[in-house]
Design goal:
alpha/beta; UDP-N-acetylmuramoyl-L-alanine:D-glutamate ligase; four-stranded mixed β-sheet; five-stranded parallel β-sheet; 4 helices
Length: 175
């Protein structure tokens, strides 16, 4: 199997199953098994998937200072990810609420907290990137330095571009 460095967002997600989107106003909507809250984020989920497939994964992310690391690997999970490179330096962990309906349409409410200003300590990343087979990145601001580092070490790169815009296009072109 492969050896991966994954850098990206860790967030608290609440997923809500609704009848249809757009959601019609009701003062109270009740349903059993319709709301699920857990740790998530694209990079977090990619790390779990790669581990489940038998790969060696180093996950590099940031969370809020008060985030309990044991929440990242609940006791009932068969697959877990190491948390030693998940840095608790943000004011709060980003959060997201996702509404989805039976037609698989989604409406996402995102609160990135201070993620846009967060800076990852790249001194920890250099030896890990040098030793990996591939670097998988989110398009969060703190992941941009990983591109240069991966290039310096001639590593294959995959970027999960959730919301592609011209700024990301320029970053990729300048890479």
């Amino acid at each position: 199997m492969g050896k991966f460095v994954v850098a990206g967002v860790t967030q608290i997600e609440t997923i809500v199953k609704v009848e249809k989107i757009p959601v019609e106003f009701a003062p109270l909507t009740r349903g059993t098994g319709t709301i699920y809250t857990s740790v998530g984020g694209d990079a977090y989920n990619e790390s779990l998937a790669l581990k489940w497939l038998g790969n060696e994964v180093t996950f590099m992310s940031m969370v809020g200072r008060s985030q309990k690391m044991d929440q990242l690997n609940p006791g009932d999970r068969k697959v877990t990810i190491p948390t030693e490179y998940i840095i608790p330096q943000m004011e709060n962990t980003p959060t997201e609420v996702i509404f989805y309906d039976k037609n698989r349409r989604q409406q996402i409410f995102e609160d990135p907290k201070d993620l846009h200003d967060a800076v990852y300590d790249m001194s920890m990343a250099t030896p890990l990137v040098a030793a990996c087979d591939m670097v998988i990145l989110a398009n969060a601001n703190f992941c941009k330095p990983f591109l240069r580092l991966a290039r310096e070490h001639c590593k294959r790169i995959a970027v999960n571009v959730r919301n592609f815009n011209h700024n990301m296009e320029k970053i990729i072109q300048n890479f």
